[in-house]
Please model this.
Amino acid sequence: MAESKGILGSRRDLARVRTGEEAKVEYVELFFDLVFVFAATQISHSLLRNLTVLGAFHAAFLLMAVWWVWVYTSWVTNWMDPRHSAVRLLLFILMLAGLLLSTSIPEAFDSRGLVFAGAYVFMQVGRSIFMLWALRLHNRVNYLNFCRITAWLSLSGVFWIAGGFAEGETRFAIWIVALLIEYAAPAAGFWTPRLGASKTAEWDVEGGHMAERSALFIIIALGESVVVTGATFAGLELTTGVMVAFLASFGATVAMWWIYFNIGAETAKHHIETSSDPGRIARIAYTYSPLLLVAGIIVTAVGDELTLAHPSGHADMASILTIVGGPALYVFGNLVFKRIAMNITPLSHMIGLALLLVVGLCGPLLNPVTLSVLTTVILFSVAYWEYKLHTRRLAASH
Model:
């Protein structure tokens, strides 16, 4: 039976069927994610080309925008079944718009601002309008949620488009207003006149699926780090410093994977699956906090590229901030995530942050490759410490 093309609503219910088992992440969702590998690469390269305070703010802003597009789409596929042709078509259209968005990233604050803004608004508002059509005849509560969401995204869309027509720092200021509106919306329950605010208990979230989707984006970011490292290393002369920097870079990527996936990802997934209010956990732990993790990975990738290009000599401030700051941001992101999703505050992470701070303060006395090796050792120490404590807890509980 084909989906209805009616204007008022889909006659066929496109929602995932809740069976009590974890919802499967479909291949088309992974296919959709490929666009964001490119987006992450574009952001890291943009930061590398403009290692200034303003360049860092621009990169952070673009990452927040790209993440927001992705996470809203993940919420949609948490509710809608991608096996339906209408949902698949939505994802393909969003992929095309996402590719246009990604290609505009390097010139978003210059000649392609309107293209970036137009693609962004099309994805955000267009996806929400699709959800109104899909939900109207089948899920009154979620339909009203998306009435609220559409209102907020339409309001921010006005600022996005206005910023696209503006120039220079005026554009940046207007776009900041647009992004602040969108980031404030979930925390405000998407409150709108007459409809009021949504309650997280009303967000019928499949916790396991949301956790897995978030984990897959972390994999995307780590993959981008591997791509940057490999591409840079391939074009360099094989000196001792370059080889050590290469090994340290790869080691840091492995350690970052270990810190998040060995314990945190699965334990947090269990917590959201068994929570009485998974919508609340999903709103904070899988909507806001993973952004810190992705930012840490991207900044670390930039630091790795700088180290590979210039392993010896004293490190300048940009190198120190990326080589040490990236891992510190990632460890801090894991600390926040585990506090929210698992209700624990790992001592290993706090000690790791303190050690990274010490290394950063000593940065002007060290060369980039030494900084890279030290941060990698600290990352592995954090991962191993947490692993041993977790193993002992498991042994004690049995």
Notes: DSSP finds 14 helices and no strands in the chain. Confidence is low (pLDDT under 50) at residues 1-5. The first helix runs from residue 27 to 49. The radius of gyration is 22 Å.
